[in-house]
């Protein structure tokens, strides 16, 4: 066999496999007579071909019979929906989690489709408020299909999926924002409305930060349950680690625990968390410190001192930035001073975070460090403006000298011209 033929026998099969489309799975090649009928029906039994074909189940080769039983390849309804074919038909709500778990709890089976997919969803669901109530016979609670849909299930990383991060809150709100549906559960139905005003919602929905918290971040997904008073801080500290460490080092931890309060929620609330501001601390109107403390207490004075310190540093940063910007727009180089001023902003941020320790001395330490930077930055601005003034005075003097020289030259020229004219007349 010549060398060219040997190469062809080795290369061509791989090249064909690369260029030609792969054969569809066997299940996709088999006729699905279920859809021929159900695609022409109305909801809730209607399922369009487009919906089903775009679902993750269809793309993995599963068909209607994978859940409902029967024989989708037969166009005879008696055969397709017969007991001999294992037809189940309508799946009762109470049976849905167990049905889904037949595949999703089988690690060996799921490994063939997605080795990284967790297989403990059903056991997690059984620990959730939803799962516990379902076990007691309450079929109004959420089951798999309420959150993931039934026939057009999309993977969680698909932006159109009902469990994609930006869609999770709306999915939960389908039940939890419906007063009629939630009647009898003795929980509020304004969680979604409050969340829509929160800093978390803004980060997720407006700024597009998919790591920002949504319902499942704090409550869990399959094991959804409200975090208890004792565990709220641990849930919040999943993201806000440093704040919790500071809170644990301060006097509020034991005090709040004795009163059965959660540190995070007491000051920040839960669903409607607003962007923190300096007004939250201190003795002014709306300050959260005043929920517990009153005039005459040491804590009252400490809260006022911390608030005033934060405000002072913030104002000094603005003052320094204003003078540096004025110098910069006038053409004086102040880049180094402006860069140094960013350290004062960092100190202000640190001071605002250190508030969680409610230790006035620790907060003041950051404030004083920032004030030292602002003083240097402001002085640099004054020096830059003084230099600008000196430049302008020098320029004015130079221009005056130039003007005097020009005037002198003009007078000299006139004198010379006059002398020439007098000579010509003679």
Description:
This protein has 426 residues and is an all-alpha fold. It has 3 domains: 30-90, no CATH class; 93-225, no CATH class; 298-425, Butyryl-CoA Dehydrogenase, subunit A, domain 3, CATH 1.20.140. It is built from 24 helices and no strands. It has helices at 3-19, 26-29, 33-38, 49-54, 56-59, 65-68, 77-80, 96-104, 107-111, 121-127, 129-135, 144-148, 165-176, 179-182, 191-195, 199-206, 215-219, 229-236, 241-249, 252-259, 263-268, 298-329, 335-354, 360-425. Helix 23 runs antiparallel to helix 24. The protein starts with a helix and ends with a helix. Mean pLDDT is 88; it is low at 1-29.
Describe how the helices and strands are arranged.
Blueprint: H1 3-19, H2 26-29, H3 33-38, H4 49-54, H5 56-59, H6 65-68, H7 77-80, H8 96-104, H9 107-111, H10 121-127, H11 129-135, H12 144-148, H13 165-176, H14 179-182, H15 191-195, H16 199-206, H17 215-219, H18 229-236, H19 241-249, H20 252-259, H21 263-268, H22 298-329, H23 335-354, H24 360-425
Mean pLDDT equals 88
Q: Give the strand tally.
A: 0
Radius of gyration: 37 Å
Element-level helix/strand string: HHHHHHHHHHHHHHHHHHHHHHHH
Low-confidence stretches: 1-29
Name the shape in a single word. elongated
Output the number of helix runs: 24
- Overall domain count: 3
Q: What is the helix fraction of residues, given as a range?
A: 55-70%
Distance between the termini: 120 Å
Biggest sheet descriptor = none
Strand share of the residues?
under 5%
- SS-based class: mainly alpha
């Amino acid at each position: 066999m010549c060398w060219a033929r040997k190469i062809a026998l080795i290369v061509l099969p791989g090249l064909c496999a690369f260029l030609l489309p792969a054969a569809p799975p066997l299940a996709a090649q088999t006729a699905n007579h279920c859809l021929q009928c159900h695609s022409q029906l109305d909801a809730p039994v209607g399922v369009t071909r487009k919906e089903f074909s775009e679902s993750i189940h269809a793309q993995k080769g599963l068909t209607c019979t994978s859940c409902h039983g029967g024989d989708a390849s037969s166009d005879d309804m008696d055969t397709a929906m017969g007991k001999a074919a294992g037809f189940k038909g309508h799946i009762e709500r109470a049976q849905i989690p167990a049905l889904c778990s037949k595949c999703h709890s089988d690690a060996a089976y799921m490994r063939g489709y997605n080795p990284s997919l967790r297989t403990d969803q059903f056991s997690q669901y059984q620990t959730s408020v939803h799962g516990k109530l379902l076990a007691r016979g309450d079929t109004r609670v959420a089951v798999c299909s309420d959150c993931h849909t039934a026939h057009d299930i999309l993977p969680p990383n698909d932006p159109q999926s009902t469990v994609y991060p930006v869609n999770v809150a709306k999915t939960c709100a389908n039940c939890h924002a419906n007063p009629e549906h939630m009647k009898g559960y003795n929980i509020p139905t304004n969680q979604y409305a409050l969340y829509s005003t929160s800093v978390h919602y803004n980060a997720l929905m407006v700024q597009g930060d998919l790591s920002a918290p949504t319902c499942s971040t704090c409550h869990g997904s399959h094991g959804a349950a409200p975090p208890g008073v004792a565990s709220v801080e641990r849930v919040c500290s999943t993201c806000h680690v440093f704040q919790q460490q500071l809170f644990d080092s301060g006097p509020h931890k034991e005090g709040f625990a004795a009163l059965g309060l959660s540190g995070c929620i007491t000051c920040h609330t839960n669903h409607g968390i607003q962007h923190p501001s300096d007004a939250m601390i201190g003795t002014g109107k709306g300050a959260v410190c005043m929920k517990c403390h009153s005039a005459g207490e040491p804590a009252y004075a400490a809260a006022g001192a911390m608030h005033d310190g934060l405000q002072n540093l913030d104002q000094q940063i603005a003052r320094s930035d204003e003078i540096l910007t004025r110098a910069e727009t006038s053409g004086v180089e102040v880049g180094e001073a402006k860069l140094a001023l960013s350290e004062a902003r960092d100190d202000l941020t640190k001071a605002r975070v250190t508030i969680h320790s409610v230790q006035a001395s620790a907060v003041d330490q950051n404030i004083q460090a920032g004030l030292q930077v602002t003083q240097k930055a402001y002085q640099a601005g004054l020096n830059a403006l003084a230099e600008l003034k000196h430049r302008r005075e020098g320029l004015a003097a130079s221009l005056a000298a130039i003007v005097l020289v020009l005037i002198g030259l003009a007078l000299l020229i006139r004198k010379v011209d006059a002398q020439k004219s007098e000579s010509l007349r003679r």
